[in-house]
Amino acid sequence: MAVIFYLSGSGNSLYAAQQIADDLQECRLETVGSYLRKPYPVTDEVVGIVCPVYCFALPPVVAKFLEALQAKPAYCFGVVTMGGNQGRALKQMSEALAAKRITLNYAQTVMMPDNFFGIPLEKRVKMLEAAEPSINQIAKDIADRKEAVAAVKEALLWKWFGTSASWWYLKNRLKFDNMTVDAAKCVGCGICQDVCQMQNITLVEGKPVFGNNCANCLGCFHWCPQSAISAGKLILDNSKRYVHPKINLQMMKGD
Predict the structure, then answer these.
(1) pTM of whole model > 0.85?
(2) I want to staple 185 with a disulfide (CB 3.0 to 4.6 A). Which of 26, 69, 163, 228 is the partner?
(3) Regarding the domain delimited by 179-252, which CATH topology (the fold level of the hierarchy) does it fall under?
(4) 143 to 1, 170, 239: CA distances (angstroms)
(5) What is the pLDDT of residues 108-159, one digit of tens each?
(6) Could you confirm whether domain 2-158 is CATH 3.40.50.360?
């Protein structure tokens, strides 16, 4: 048996996880949010973690998940999706797993469209096309239980400056944590609530209310059909909206 724990806002990491799962026998997918809500001893022989890169590192919620993870797999793999540079994400993952006495046997990165910056459609298409053979090879490697951890590396710039500076800018300049909704645009469809893997959004009188357990995945931001949600000064228009073309809302609901 195998399990892949994933975090995905726009669908990139979910798509990669699905493709890997298809090449594994009896593999299930579970969100990191679901596990954090109710941690349990994982008995699967193969355990994988698939997630995006945030500010040249792991998303904080994934780091929290790794601290909570109870598992003793025979084979463990990690795959991160990224717009440009993983920084120290896989190194961080390897260290967190080692602290739990879990060996990271396989680690790899996949370049996919960033969901923070507004990437032109033509470039997105090219990136997704280029990602396909990479994901296929990763899936094959994992199915064959290949040992490969060359991607587990870091530059001190990311560890001591890049990540902390990026988060400071997001939180203090862009006010990234301040999720708001334009009530005039919102139609109360509930899609934002459905795609939130942290169950951080509830509808009150037909409008979303944000809690204090946000994973900063921007799922609600990108999946909103009315472009009614903003993250601080980051305001969405149709040119910036991005969701993976092979992922639909039913898949995003996860739990």
Answers:
(1) yes
(2) 228
(3) Alpha-Beta Plaits (3.30.70)
(4) 12, 38, 38
(5) 999 999 877 677 778 889 999 999 999 999 999 999 999 999 999 876 666 6
(6) yes
